[in-house]
Amino acid sequence: QVQLVESGGGLVQAGGSLRLSCAASGRTFSSYNMMGWFRQAPGKEREFVAAIAWSGNRIYEDSVKGRFTISRDNAKNTVYLQMNALKPEDTAVYYCAAKSSSATAPLRTAPQYDSWGQGTLVTVSS
């Protein structure tokens, strides 16, 4: 398994931006072709945010389309989530996930992923 460590969370005002990073170690990052971001707000279930496949194909949850961008840097073993125009409803713990997969279509359900980070808290104030 690969170990994932998220960073970049914090407190930001509505309309602001944050960039989350997820650093992978323990295995060649490119072997984990599928990378995803999920989030969990207090009292709610974990939900999909964005994912990127080895092909570079990306998908997003509808509420973040046009505001969030997922990207990866295999040379740095890191995946990023750039979050712009943040809203109070984006407040959650954000988790990075990984799966070894040759699929060209990104995966959007949590049980399909093998490895998870510990999460980083994003708080958006109104």
Distance between the termini: 39 Å
State the helicity in percent bands: under 10%
Q: Average pLDDT across residues?
A: 93
Number of helical segments with 4 or more residues: 0
- Which stretches are low in confidence, meaning pLDDT under 50 for 5 or more residues running? none
Give the amount of beta strand, in percent: over 45%
Main sheet characteristics: 7 strands, mixed
Number of strands: 11
Shape: globular
Structural class: mainly beta
Radius of gyration equals 13 Å
Element pattern in H and E: EEEEEEEEEEE
Q: How would you sum up this structure, described in words?
A:
The chain is mainly beta and 126 residues long. It has strands at 3-7, 10-13, 18-25, 34-40, 47-52, 58-60, 68-73, 78-83, 92-99, 115-116, 120-125. The strands form 2 sheets. Strands 2, 4, 5, 6, 9, 10 and 11 form a 7-stranded mixed sheet that branches. A 4-stranded antiparallel sheet has the order 1-3-8-7, with no helix packed on it. Strand 5 and strand 6 form a beta hairpin. It is globular, with a radius of gyration of 13 Å.
